[in-house]
Design goal:
The protein has 7 helices and 8 strands. It has 236 residues and is of the alpha+beta class. The longest helix has 23 residues, at 2-24. Mean pLDDT is 78; it is low at 1-24 and 115-124.
Length: 236
């Protein structure tokens, strides 16, 4: 499927970046990611959602959690729980409440990792968000599973003045903002219609983060559906 191809493509890029990084410095991927994580966390106001820090750490070190021995965010946090205080507020949503700044500062100083980011596209800042030019009906945010992967589907953005080109632009921002796959696909059921409609598919469970991003764009009406939607967000 289209989503499978996009996801596979991202993993392939990660493997290439992994080889490049290993050739450029003497530090392991684990060391680079640990350094990047604490560097990102040290500049963030707490509490903060862990996926935000993991995304920033990936942008800093050009190493994703999948390229480390931990492989998964939960394993990384559990290994470093002596210096990071976190809690799972909802299924799949982890909040970092505090951390040992003295220990992290020591790690940053002793490791003294220099990250060459001059030629890496991931050093780009987040894109300026497009603004809604219309006021339409609620945007549908559906949390579901496609081929065993958690996917969030956004429908109805065109009613707020966000056309296909802007959706492509927004998907690019989501890939950076949430460190996740994001694609624009033809909306199911509109294949034979004269005016085609489009959806944005984002891998993951970042419903609340997506809502906050849409609010920044001036979109403030949502219809949240799906088993993976927190109860307080349904039909919001």
């Amino acid at each position: 499927s289209e989503e499978e191809e996009d996801d596979d493509g991202e993993e392939g890029e990660g493997e290439n970046n992994n080889n490049d990084n290993e050739g450029k410095n003497e530090h392991t991927n684990d060391e680079i990611f640990l350094y990047s994580f604490f560097k990102a966390l040290s500049s963030e106001k707490l509490p903060v959602l862990s996926n935000i820090i993991f995304g920033k750490a990936t942008n800093i070190g050009k190493i994703s959690i999948k390229q480390t021995s931990w492989k998964k965010a939960g394993s990384f946090l559990e290994t470093n729980k002596d210096s990071i205080d976190f809690i799972e507020t909802k299924p799949g949503v982890i909040e970092i409440r505090k951390f040992d700044s003295l220990k992290s500062s020591t790690i940053l100083k002793t490791m003294n990792i220099e990250i060459d980011s001059t030629n890496n596209q991931n050093t780009e800042k987040l894109l300026p968000l497009p603004k809604a030019t219309k006021r339409g009906s609620p945007v549908t945010i559906q949390a579901c599973k496609i081929q065993s992967k958690n996917v969030i589907i956004l429908d109805g953005l065109e009613k707020w003045g966000i056309d296909k080109d802007l959706m492509q632009y927004l998907a690019k921002d989501f890939r950076k903002r949430f460190s996740s796959s994001a694609t624009v696909t033809e909306r199911r059921g509109s294949e034979n219609s004269k005016d085609k409609l489009w959806s944005i598919h984002i891998h993951g469970k970042s419903v609340e983060d997506i809502i906050e991003t849409l609010k920044e764009m001036g979109i403030n009406q949502f219809n949240c559906v799906g088993k993976n939607i927190p109860k307080n967000l349904k039909m919001k």
